[in-house]
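Example 5.3 — M28 family peptidase
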Amino acid sequence: MKRNLTLFFLLFTNMLLAQDSVFVRRMVDTLTSSYFWGRGYTNDGMGKAGRFIAGQFKDYGLQPMDGREYEQPFTFSANTFPGMMDLSINGTALVPGRDFIIGPASRGVKGEGTLVQKDSIHFIDLKNRVVVELKDKLTWSVEQGAADFTLVQVDKKALKGIPVTININEENKLVEGFKANNICGVVKGTVKPDSVVIFTAHYDHLGGMGNKTYFPGANDNASGVSLLLSLARYYALHPQRYSMAFICFSGEEAGLLGSKFFTENPLVPLQSIRFLINLDLLGTGEEGIMVVNATVYPKEYGILKQLNEQNHYLVKVASRGKAANSDHFFFTEKGVPAFFIYTMGGIRAYHDVFDISKTLPLNEYNHVFKLLVGFNAALMK
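Solution (predicted structure tokens):
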């Protein structure tokens, strides 16, 4: 009888994980769709994504962290590119995102000019204050201000010969009070509701570059948000002794702004946080996971490693020290114990138009999910 119950439990658990695998794929597909327009600064992409996540929290039965609203609003400046994005070099029209990107601090410009070579990769149109830079890979980002010139980064493979002439029509708009929201929900603990374990993930990405091109951000960070939502669903159905909280930050790509704002305006006392796990870049895993802050919190890192070795989840749980590379950082600076976990191996698409759901394997999702659930259970003993 005991053996039959064990088999039933294993089958039931595997069925739930299979359902969660379908769920997380659907979430990545949804968050990378054109409707959310790169979850960024034009077409209300970030706003739509935030409202969608808040709706998910409500559907799962999470309570707003502040008792009233899921949204924690704040503002910051962002240089955006909502309109025209046309470029021709040597008479050849180039495709935004694929063949070229505009420097994120660039001003808008419209005109024709001649390019003067400065070195092997830089060419300048003095009349229109445009710098053309040749690159092996195009990687975009976000800036909070606008410069007095325009930087155009061009994939070397898109050109035949050196750049000589340029025709450009590119619009920018500096938004000085861009409105953003952190999305915050909680499942109250059954025994120690004032002690909190928090999962975090940033839901913003780079948004759109012009009115025809957007950056989907599948691995960065639809993958982390989707895993967070899966965990939120799980813990809403299985309340724990401690409270389980979930925060989706915005403004990460502009400089960890959402997490910085939260640590300066916390909706729960920072000293009540038992541990925080930040999820970013969770779409692969062929080479295991990296744990940032592992050397800072060796006891908790040891729990992760032991669980992984006992259950043969991942090929490696690698250790890294303190780093200011994601939303865990400002919590660590305030004395909150935290890990930043990301997967390693697989696709190399990052901050480009090729970071899409279709090619994101999500192959170690189930193992990471199990590892995190086991880690939380060990923390609460």
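Remark. Residues 347 and 360 are 7 Å apart (CA to CA).
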